[in-house]
Amino acid sequence: DKRYFHRFFNRYDQSELDRYSNWFWGWFNFINKFVPLKDSQGKKVLEIGSSIGAFAKILKEKNFNIIASDISSYIVGKASRLQKNIPFKVINVEKGIKVDGLFDYIFCFDVVEHLKNPEGAFENIIKKLKKGGTYIFSTPFPSEEYLSDPTHINVHEPDWWIALGKKAGFSNLQFS
After folding, report:
1. Would you call 96 exposed, middle or buried from its count of C-beta atoms within 10 A (0-12, 13-18, 19+)?
2. How far apart are CA 31 and CA 1, in angstroms?
3. What's the pTM value of the predicted model, to 2 decimals?
4. Strand blocks (E) in 5-142
5. How high is the pLDDT of residue 117?
6. Which of 48, 50, 55, 101 pairs with 72 at a CA distance of 20 to 30 A?
7. For residues 111 and 137, is the Cβ–Cβ distance under 8 A?
8. Handedness of CA 102, 48, 78, 60 (dihedral sign)
9. Is a pLDDT exceeding 80 seen at residue 1?
């Protein structure tokens, strides 16, 4: 865990959180073109693979009811100390999502390419969505750069992910 996250963080401090939050504002604005996030204050959200919680920070500022999670207890500890106003949980999405309630939104940025069993993860995610809820994830396209990363064990074209989503029971699927 330390070695993996050290590629992104040196100090695990507010300045690094702010730098990544600036990057995630781009995600927020992009997603808002398709899903009205700016009009969704108070909605219940789960972020899977939140790292230090840069996107969770934005959602909290926008008054979402956010739970942030990561598989790494190391990074969850760092995030919890950095953002005491956001609950962080250790969750292995392939084994199940052990948090109470259902969610309006589940976000998962650059996580699914690391999973041995993305189908199981999708099945667990759909169980935690409210009826009419939205699951939004990102994953890299197959390219030499992304395929060379040994932690990227499931890098596929968008059609593959859409088929997987359909198989797991998702509807109204789209790629953007």
Report:
1. middle
2. 29
3. 0.94
4. 44-48, 65-70, 88-90, 103-109, 129-138
5. 97
6. 101
7. yes
8. negative
9. no
Q: Strands across the sheet with 129-138, in order?
A: 88-90, 65-70, 44-48, 103-109, 129-138
Alpha carbons 175 and 16: distance in angstroms, whole number: 30
Terminal C-alpha separation, the chain: 31
User: Token pair of 7, please?
Assistant: 């590629």
Indicate the Cα dihedral angle 141, 134, 56, 154, nearest 10°: -30
- At 4, is the pLDDT very low, low, confident or very high (cuts 50, 70, 90)? confident
Nearest to 75 by CA among 172, 171, 132, 8: 8
Strand, coil or helix: 66: strand
- pLDDT greater than 80 at residue 35: yes
Mapped onto helix, strand or coil, the DSSP state of residue 130 is strand
> Model confidence over 147-165: pLDDT tens digits?
888 889 999 999 999 999 9
Would you place residue 145 in the very low, low, confident or very high pLDDT band (cuts 50, 70, 90)? confident
pLDDT at 36: 86
Alpha-carbon separation of residue 84 from 4, 49, 122, 151 (angstroms): 23, 18, 29, 30
